[in-house]
Amino acid sequence: MKYWGKLRAFMLAGMASCVASVAIAQTCETALRDTPMVPTDHEYCKSLTETVRHPGALPLNEYEAALSQFFNNWCHRDTASGWVRDKYVRDTGPYTAARVAGQKGAPWDGTYHGTHAPVVIWYSPDMVTWLEKNRPTGKAHPDPQAAIPDGAMMVKEMYPEPAAACAKYDPNYLFPTSGAAIMVRDAQGSKDGWFWGWYGWPGEGWAPDWPAGESNAPPNMGFGQYCVNCHGSAHDLTFAEERNMEGHPGQPEVFLSQDFFAGQYIGTGAVPRTGTKATATAAADDDMGDDIHSLRAHMEARPVPHGQKRAEPLQELLALLRKADRFGAVPDHSFIMPSQTYDNVWMPAKGPSPQSQYLTSDQCTGCHDAGSTGLQFDMTMPDPQSDKLLNLSPYATWRSSPMGLAGRDPIFFAQMASETQTFHHDQADLVQTTCLGCHGILGQRQFQIDHATDNAGDCGVFDRDIVNAVPYPPENPSAGHASYGALARDGISCMACHQMVLGKEATEKYANDPQNACVLKRQELINADNTGFGKTFTGSFLVGPAGKLFGPFDKPQTHPMDYTLGIKPEKGDAISTSEMCGTCHTVHLPVLHDGKTIAHVYEQTTYAEWAFSAYRTGTTIDGPLPGGAGSVPETCQDCHMPSRDEGGTFKSKIASIQEFSNFPAAANTFAPGDIDLEQREGFAKHTLVGLNLFLVKMFQQFPDIMGVPTADPMMNSKKAIDPLELTARAINQQAENDTVSISLGDDRVIANGKLGATVSITSHTGHKFPSGVGFRRAFVNFEVLDASDKVIWASGRVNKAGVLVDQNHKPITGELWWDESCNARIEPDKRLHQPHYEVITSQNQTQIYQELVSTPPLDGSQFACGHNVRPQGELTTSFLSICAEVKDNRLPPPGYLGLAERTEISKALGAGADLAEDAGFTAVGTDPDYVGPTEQGGDSLRYEISLKEIDGTPAKVRARLYYQATPPFYLQDRFCTAKGDDTDRLAYLAQYLNLDGTKAENWALKLVDTGPVDIAKQ
């Protein structure tokens, strides 16, 4: 990020790497044909016309089939039926010449700066009539202009640049080498009133969107498409004018075109630039020069994985999968997630309402992804590791984060399978609606809004099957729920955060709105005894009206979003506060037992841990908290959505649209004050990562299974590194630099027949580490080395599946919960586990920083549940069975408060003393590192090792800290407690995930390492 300040200079100097940069050698040879391409069967075209004029009347697959026939027969060139074309192929921006740098006798080369490739637009008869009446050449335009009639069409054929290359040819003899962008007016189809699309003739890469293809790419056609990022800057969303049309007065807009070197070769020693077939083909194959329409359409035929999955299953992981032989070497089609191509929910024609409260993120992509106009590259920076760009836009960084992937998270869905099949099959409806209220939040909420509207306030049950609902084939049983499935698969999406309202004032203002009716019921179900902010825990926050979105900046530009979606952005009070994150990252859940809710406990307290640490800001949206700010106040966003680095504060525009002042001239645009954007100080990356590299690697290596593309929809892999790779980098950076540090004390000595050493770990996180879901863990690997660095004693070694093993490679106590056949738990009544150590003496002991919880008693005896209750049940991974804590020795953050101070803050947040208690520690004895308040944060651990136990002569010691997002016992519990697609999917991914050579090799992410350190002389 230190390069951020050089971005503008980079853009000006290096546009050839971002915009079309091709020699005029391409000419028009690739487009020219020997015979005209015009309709030959006028009656057939006439029979198709009425169908293609009404895109909203048919399912997409049927409409696209008809449209394909219409274009393949060149029916849009039917001048006999009243279609009219542009006068000639015309540019959409300048074409500039420069000599190729770094070459002896350098030739001239050209760079095209058009909003898209040169065009010939064809206009349907009703569009022609509308332009004649509403945008006449040389006459005043009526104000207001009449509505464009439904069924009006424009077909924007696209050709090689610059236009001069094709100007001398009759357009009827030209084949559209970049396909055609289409617009079909259908005011009832969407708020913006147009059906948009890109079409490529046979051989040009176009394919119907339904059924979804192998690419999982965004659809080529449909309502609510990205095209509005440019077209929203024009009245009626079209720049078209009468003066462009053949047979009408006036001349089209003219741009600078430095094409003087076309065909020139003056003996300079340069390679001729006159255009051979070879150079034309090379230029055509280099999609760096593609128009933004065809660039999207030419995304990978199949998503390109990052990293090679294993050719054979990992044998050590197979040991966790012994329950059945159902885990084979090939993926079962049934567990492939629905394609992201189907995830398209747009604003309906009537505009925002509770019934259109939530839209999928593709409605944000066109403007809030970098490079989406093909001309300007705000929200990017040069990649210091390659010649590409880093796409730092809100969409790209969020989409590939665990937040953006939450609706497809294979670990979550396997967990929910265990909850509904084994742990709480008798309350499966409650489990699904509760859990999907976070991981599938938009789908769950929209479903409940609609269900309550149609069923007298009954919010209904949002179940797992709805998440898989898709619109194709149209008659499939799930098609009616396809929009809810798309919203749920979109994860913790844009509108989940940007519609949130918090605080007393907003609650009073919006609590009785229909979009919040089922949220209030959720609050009473989950947080009945809480008040204020405490009511919002477990994702139970209220939202504002559908016509508003909240952002962090003053005076946002409202016109583009309002005009295209009917939504007005405004500055929000909650969006930059930690409470915005705390609503979901304080998880308060019912304890289910024998079909009843017997208590409520906190499954995770990440926000509260922050509020009790030195990082707390000491305030909420409703005012200050007891005790004030900590010594190093930072919000959640300061770490997980950084807006600065060592080079300073980030500054960028926050959207990519066709502005007035820095784009090629265009007709019929809105005024600069409506569409020009300002750079914003404090532009925040939506990175939103912790340390779950394992999840990101699954999406990198198995995009086909997960139903996602790997390339960004606006910045393909030749322009920018793929977002999933950027996310993996961010995780590795956070692991290495921003989580913990580790050191060995000076007391590394051998005395009295023992080797002694102290390992100190210092936390740099603003909450416990690990935090979040309770099954995360970190562990210390301590090794004794001989003079040649051979390991001769070790605590915390793992096998290739991440299982902690002793010197004989046997799992240490508590590491696995089931026998190899998954038939029985291993002594469940003993709750076997590694305790919290202050001194370690043996290789079968490992310091594991983790939270372990237990169920209610297995024998049905009387019991209570809570933080300080004596455990009587068995260890559990069920989120809804947590009755007692067995162990919580996760590393405390710096400045962690004692119980009394935590209780005071908890009550001010609207929670009870149980929040303060649950955010404490369990089974840590009298370890001073855990007795609050803790100033430094972290833990110190002593190793006392008998020399008799060391297999050699000790010379050095080494300490490392590792992290596991999904420990072996957790994975084993998934495979032993559920079956079906969600379990099979995770099992397949786990078997074939290849972590070799990565920082997470052996299923353990290395965070920090002391390196070998000499033992002090005796």
Described by strand count, sense and barrel closure, the largest sheet is:
8 strands, antiparallel
Give a count of the beta strands, DSSP E runs of length 2 or more: 37
First and last CA, distance: 48 Å
Overall pLDDT score: 91
Low-confidence stretches: 1-26, 264-289
The computed structural class is alpha+beta
**Helix content range:** 10-25%
Given the structure, what is the number of helices? 30
CA-atom Rg in angstroms: 31 Å
Structure description:
With 1018 residues, the protein is of the alpha+beta class. 24% of the residues lie in helices and 16% in strands. It has 30 helices and 37 strands. Strands 26, 27, 31, 32, 33, 35, 36 and 37 form an eight-stranded antiparallel β-sheet that branches. β2 (95-99) and β3 form a beta hairpin. It is globular.
Essential attributes:
30 helices; globular; alpha+beta; single chain; 1018 residues; 6-stranded antiparallel beta sheet; disordered N terminus
Question: What is shown here, in short?
Answer:
The protein is α+β, with helices and mostly antiparallel strands. Strands 26, 27, 31, 32, 33, 35, 36 and 37 form an 8-stranded antiparallel β-sheet that branches. It has a 6-stranded antiparallel β-sheet with strand order 1-4-5-6-7-8. Strands 23, 24, 25, 30 and 34 form a 5-stranded mixed β-sheet that branches.
